[in-house]
Amino acid sequence: MKMNNKKCTLAKDFIESNSIPIPESGCWIWEACEDHGRISFLGQNVLLDSLVFEAFKGPIPNDKIVTHQCHVDGCVNPVHLRLLNIRINKKDKVKQHL
After folding, report:
1. How far apart are CA 75 and CA 59, in angstroms?
2. Of 15, 63, 76, 88, which has the fewest CB atoms closer than 10 Å, so is most exposed?
3. pTM above 0.85, yes or no
4. What would the pLDDT profile of 64-74 be if each residue is shown by its tens digit?
């Protein structure tokens, strides 16, 4: 989703008002995490992690995906999100399960 300043502001407000901060971990847990992280925002079906990243950090290059540094499902804290290419993400997931 291409984000102009108005969409970024709306997205930030939407994300902050629908997540619960967890002080112990720093995670912001999305209250209604359903459909494998897909949500409806401004009439579009989008990936929640991508929406958060774009709203708080900027565009996502085509060869990258958004991943969680905290590995907590439902976390939408932009500080916990990073961009990786698919190969690195697959290796990271394998390491987490060892």
Report:
1. 19
2. 63
3. no
4. 999 889 988 88
